[in-house]
Specification:
This protein has four helices and six strands, in the order ββααββββαα. By secondary structure, the chain is of the alpha+beta class. The model has no long low-confidence stretch (mean pLDDT 86).
């Protein structure tokens, strides 16, 4: 998270470590989860959906340029910057399963991960020792599922 800096990716400002704890100083986002807004409203206009998807895809582009794949993109991990009705400021959060796609597969802790319904097929079908490893396109698949939901 220290390597990324984009308006649509949750910002990490500082990390403090003590003997028993690690504290992360993160950006304050007051709008809650996108999933809550989706459930409140049964229909979104094309212009709103296009804004949401543009935010997500621009953030993914930056993340992928940094050599990072998120691997758990879903509406619960998309937060809104403010409580206003506007959906213009969508931010990707929860980098708990994120990893570098430049690492050797044997150095990646969780190879098969993600949330059912949003995880790309190549992640689900990956087997240890398999030649070739999935890449950042797995996030694009998850973005497509979100697009379908909207």
């Amino acid at each position: 998270m220290k390597r990324i800096n984009h308006k649509n990716l949750l910002r990490l400002f500082q990390v403090y470590e003590t003997k028993h704890s690690i504290y992360l100083v993160l950006e304050v986002l007051k709008g809650g989860e996108l999933i809550k807004k989706i459930k409140e409203k049964s229909f979104y206009e094309e212009k709103d959906i296009s804004r949401i998807m543009a935010n997500i895809l621009e953030a993914l582009d930056h993340l992928h340029d940094c050599g990072i794949m998120h691997r758990d993109l879903k509406p619960e991990n998309l937060l809104l910057k403010s409580t206003e009705e506007s959906l213009q400021e969508v931010v990707i959060a929860d980098f708990g399963l994120a990893t570098s796609f430049h690492l050797e597969p044997n150095k990646i802790l969780f190879k098969r991960c993600g949330t059912p319904g949003f995880v790309a097929p190549e992640i689900l079908s990956y087997k240890d020792g398999q030649e070739g490893f999935y890449d950042e396109k797995c996030d694009v698949f998850s973005a497509g599922v979100i697009f379908y939901l909207l």
